[in-house]
Amino acid sequence: MGVDIRVENLNAWYGNTHTLQDINLHIPSNHATALIGPSGCGKSTFVRCLNRMHETNPIARAEGTVMIGGLDIYKDASPVEIRRRVGMVFQRPNPFPTMSIYDNVASGLKLNGFRNKRMLDEVVERSLKQAALWDEVKDDLRKKSGASISGGQQQRLCIARALAVDPEVLLMDEPASALDPVSTAKIEDLIYQLKSQYTIVIVTHNMQQAARVAANTGFFLNGKLVEFDATTKIFTKPSDKRTEDYITGRFG
Amino acid sequence: MSSPRTERSATMNRLHELRRSVVNHFVTGLAILSTVVVLVPLIAIVGYLIYKGASSLNLAFFTHVPAPVGQPGGGMANAIVGSGVILGLASLIGIPVGIFAGVYLAEYGQGTHLGNMVRFTADVLNGVPSIVMGIAAYSLIVAKQQHFSGFAGGVALAIMMVPTITRTTEEMLATVPHAIREAALGLGIPKWRTVLSISLRTASAGIITGCMLAFARVAGETAPLLFTAFGNQFWSFDLKQPIAALPLQIYVYAVSPYDEWHRLAWAGALVLIAMIMGAVTLVRIFSNRGALQGGH
Hints:
CATH class of chain A: Alpha Beta
Number of helices of chain A: 10
CATH topology of chain A: Rossmann fold
CATH class of the domain at 77-244 in chain B: Mainly Alpha
Number of helices of chain B: 12
Shape of chain A: globular
CATH superfamily of the domain at 77-244 in chain B: MetI-like
Helix content of chain B: over 70%
Helix content of chain A: 25-40%
CATH topology of the domain at 77-244 in chain B: MetI-like fold
Order of helices and strands of chain A: EEEHEEHEHHHHEHEHEEHH
Number of strands of chain A: 10
Radius of gyration of chain B: 26 Å
Distance between the termini of chain A: 36 Å
Oligomer: heterodimer
Largest interface: A-B, 35 and 24 residues
Shape of chain B: globular
Order of helices and strands of chain B: HHHHHHHHHHHH
Number of strands of chain B: 0
Radius of gyration of chain A: 18 Å
Strand order of the largest sheet of chain A: 6-7-8-3-9-10
Distance between the termini of chain B: 57 Å
């Protein structure tokens, strides 16, 4: 089941650049939440702070409180533990090219020492079904490389791989921006179905996408969270002038 | 009717097109010529070795130890096995050390003083003449132990393998896309596990090539073995004792005054090259086994 995320006074830096400034936000559990904003506004940095991927860059650092399901992830847990509970899907599909489709999905478990074959088989099948990929790949699970399938299939494979470790939160950093419209629609359908079981945070450039999949939407600008509200409200009656300018296409 | 202006630009276009075509053919020709220049010496050497050496190859060459001076027959069985032993030991030491040093450079030592030092040392070591490597192993091991040994030979060759393997490993790891490491870290896989099971595995084809290059290079080395393995006319598998090696045996026979020995030296050289080619081919076949459809 998904858990909620509470962010208090989150600040992040790349070197001397203050990329996130005093972010305060509550993301409800078992909903999809969209983050929109122009390039470089800090929305990607924000999601990378939610699973402590931000700090894998040696010049990056973050300060503040991020509570995920009541756990203070910067105080009470190691990055490795956090990332098992908070899965991530990246902008470009990044399957492991030397691994079969099966091993890609099983990698999160296998490489953490999980060896029970029967359980792995079950997890792989369940995850691929959740990612709506099972029927397309079930005959080549062990024969084909994870990099040999189409881009859209690769992205669903990456979603299956993230789901296989049974996370509570799924972060998606522009998951459809490198895909064609048909594949994009499939990913959106998935998000729609998965949000009943996981808390989903999706960064997107596509405002229609945010409107289609997300219950709540946050608008970032220049490292600040300008507005966070129900998606319908953001797109019909934004309370901030800058949000209105952005969604009506006046800039960005 | 076309205006003078479009006519002139049509001529220009034709000229431009001609120039482009000539340059294209010239560069293609240059590439083909260079390929031939690379291939000719290799084919010539192998061909000449077969011509000179194949007639001296018989069963005795692979089963007998060298015959005493003045007696006909004899073979290089002990040298073939000895080379195998020394190269096995060198690979056993050199490949893990080389790969892990490369892993350090690519994954942990970026921009650190130690990292820069290791990289610089590896590059310098790569350029050190092999005879110097032999003398180093002599003074470090042989002189201390007061006797020549196969072990010292293996260590000398291992040291020569390390820099090539280290630098290839580093460069191959650098070609592994950042996105793939992020994918692994994002799954909650610890860094050491990511390095071993994701980065190294993704770069494995190139790293294996590097190891093969290093292996093939030291397999034919004679100078480092002169002061270490020393050579042996009799059967010996003891790493603590002097041991025979093909390059040494070839060297001894080639500079001898006997025609029979010259012929055996040619045969030995042919066997040495065949062994290197065989080892490289075997590793290629082995490492391609179980490759996935559409994988890298």
